[in-house]
Write a structure and sequence with these properties.
It contains two helices and five strands, in the order E-E-E-H-E-H-E. With 90 residues, it is α+β, with helices and mostly antiparallel strands. The chain has one domain (19-88). The chain has a three-stranded mixed β-sheet with strand order 3-4-5, covered by helices on one side. The chain has a two-stranded antiparallel sheet with strand order 1-2. It is elongated and about 60 Å long. The mean pLDDT is 77.
């Protein structure tokens, strides 16, 4: 999204005002993938970040090999039997 600012001398300034986008999905490549949804949720936030947006993915914390082989920052824990984590693409 672009915003245009005009000062008192009628000088135009155009700048990107990015959105914060949160994708909530059951799968996300490369963490967990069963079908095409994982591919889309894994790729789309990267393109959105390249456009100046803040894009994040929220998904269940599956106990996969990928989970244990990588470092993650836990940003929120839901107080229930379901574990969730966020992958930050920024």
């Amino acid at each position: 999204m672009q915003q245009i600012s005009v000062d008192k001398n009628f000088n135009l300034t155009i700048f990107n005002a990015g959105m914060e986008i949160i994708h909530v999905a059951a799968e996300c490549y490369p963490v967990a993938k069963a079908g095409g949804l994982g591919d889309v949720v894994g790729a789309l936030p990267k393109y959105q970040a390249n456009l100046g947006h803040i894009a994040k993915v929220v998904m269940p914390m599956y106990r996969t090999k990928f989970l244990y082989e990588n470092h993650w920052e836990l940003v929120h824990r839901v107080p229930s039997k379901w574990d969730l984590f966020i992958i930050d693409t920024a």
